[in-house]
Amino acid sequence: MKTETIEALIKVQSEIDAFYKHEDNPFFKSKYVALPKILKHVKPVLNSNGFLLTQRPSISDNGQDILISEVIHTS
User: Fold this and answer.
1) Strand partners, 55
2) Angle, vertex CA 74, rays to CA 69 and CA 16, nearest 5
3) pLDDT tens-digit profile of 40-55?
4) Number of H-type helices and E-type strands within the chain
5) Among 16, 30, 54, 57, whose Cα sits 20 to 30 Å from the Cα of 5?
6) Of 24, 21, 72, 25, residue with least CA distance to 49
7) How far apart are CA 6 and CA 33, in angstroms?
């Protein structure tokens, strides 16, 4: 990984605060952070530091629906 990419990732990491679980999952009786809430806060920080986040649905080798996320830096 290039030095400028690492430096940009360090900056991104320092700008993103912790997320707290607010959503209820009754099936597992647990809490989680909803993906739209995460993206709302993370994408602007990534973009301002030269990163592009892409996501696309796919199907895994065992037939399960999955979401593939990829982060690309301008360098």
Assistant:
1) 69
2) 60
3) 999 999 999 999 999 9
4) 2, 4
5) 57
6) 72
7) 26
